[in-house]
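Notebook entry, cofactor series.
This is the third protein in the set we're modelling with a bound small molecule. For this one the ligand is S-adenosylmethionine. I'm keeping the input format identical across the series so the outputs can be compared line by line later. Sequence and SMILES below, as received.
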Amino acid sequence: MRVLRFALPLLAAVFVSAQDKGEKLAPYYPTPETVVERMLKLGGLKAGEKVYDLGSGDGRIVIMAADRFKANAVGVEFDADLVKQSMDRIRALGLEKRSRIIHGDLLKQNYSDADLVTIYLLPTAVEKARPLLEKQLKKGARVVAHDFGIPGWTPVKEEHIEDDGEGRAHTLYLYVR
Ligand SMILES: C[S@@+](CC[C@H](N)C(=O)[O-])C[C@H]1O[C@@H](n2cnc3c(N)ncnc32)[C@H](O)[C@@H]1O
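Returned structure with ligand:
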């Protein structure tokens, strides 16, 4: 009994903190830089606009959006090493004013001020993010999905990249809310 009195609160605390961390919705598999540029161009990203990358990996989409497109870019990533790697590069390039990475679960953020959202996640993860985007995105916000489209949404444009230079093909989907 005495053991249980101590063990249960401990187990509950571990469970709560595991839930807070969120669920791994996709492995780290970076988008080639050439494709990143195509995604941001397809999304019509303009200077000063707000862009979020859901599951930002090493921050390459955020960094290109802030550096070349002069956008306000935010990444959400729950892997601490990737967050550190991204932030180190953001600092090295002096992009702190226009870019940042949130260390957290992409399903627990607020995207209501997004002009553009980029997503490269597994189909099951895209399905999980969809209700959040439907609830939060403002009218006219754009979403660019890489390889896996958003089920139930009709893209306004699709782009096929036959070869990214490394022999990989890609499909990009543009949606407008
Ligand atoms: C396929 S990679 C894409 C990385 C980057 N967006 C790109 O295109 O290069 C997916 C990323 O999502 C991150 N991720 C998976 N589940 C997540 C979650 N629940 N919250 C935040 N990030 C998550 C992974 O750690 C990984 O870095």
